[in-house]
Amino acid sequence: MIARDEARCIERALHSLRPHVQRMLVLDTGSRDDTVSLARAAGAEVQRFAWCDDFAAARNRALELADADWNLVVDADEWLIAGGAAIEALQHQRPMHLGQLRIHSGFGDGTQEHISWLTRVLPRGVRYQGRIHEQPESPVPRVRLGIQLGHDGYSQAQLALKRGRNRTLLLAERDAHPEDPHVWLHLGKDHETYGEHADAATCYRAAWLRSQPGAPYRHDLLVRLLHCLGQSGGLDEALVLAGEAMDEWGGSPDYHFVLGNLLLDWSTQHPEQALDQGLPMARAAWERCLEIGERPDLDGSVTGRGSHLAAHNLAVIHEGLGQGEQAAHYRRLAQRLRA
Question: What whole-number distance in Å separates Cα of residue 62 and Cα of residue 70?
């Protein structure tokens, strides 16, 4: 773990992992709060690192100090919610793969979760590249493990504290690697996080044009691009792109959920065609969400889009059409699915 000024949450992270690992190492990059003392009290070895505006450099120094056959990389604002046995089992396995963990990130008012699959279990010798949103570089296969982490770094309070912190590093990475779709993706996320939808759409579009079909991150990228286009005056472009991407992501509830939102917005702009075209198509998109169900295996999926959120939208649209019985049905369904 690398950390700085994480007194709020570092104990939670370390206590959740301590029963399942042989050793915990925290590399402090300049804390001014009680991070160091709390980490030591929780049983971690703490080392110091002079921050140099390079997350990969800090990660790699931590890996050097760990000097282990297997390394589980965790951030201070994360905690183990499932998979302790899978962590312990690594001690008896040969380090021949990289392990991907399922990260549950709460956002907004805390009622929704964004699911991501991140490579966080590294065998000896693997190192990171990239000064921000760093990635482990290795030809070794990546395997999804039964390990799940909670993450609260996207809460409104935490985002307010972090505003602007990473933008300079992201822009430097963009200038250094202008053809890297990951850099454009993360720069877009930074804009979207703070409501800058037009700038986010520009970055996501650049990432989409540079991405390879079949890349796992394209699911998250597409859904974000469609949403931000819709929020920034690019509704027609979003609908064209959604049609082009149907074959690739037609099995995603997130895709259909955002498509329904776009079609609802289109109906608002074209009221003369709403009843015959826009609203039935939006309804069909959200019904498709329910048919597919939740897809946490898709990187960037949002919990609820294949269940209670889609049912809620269907209740709203039927209510707006004066179809009380259907609206009541979907409200009951939304409550049941959410429970």
Answer: 13
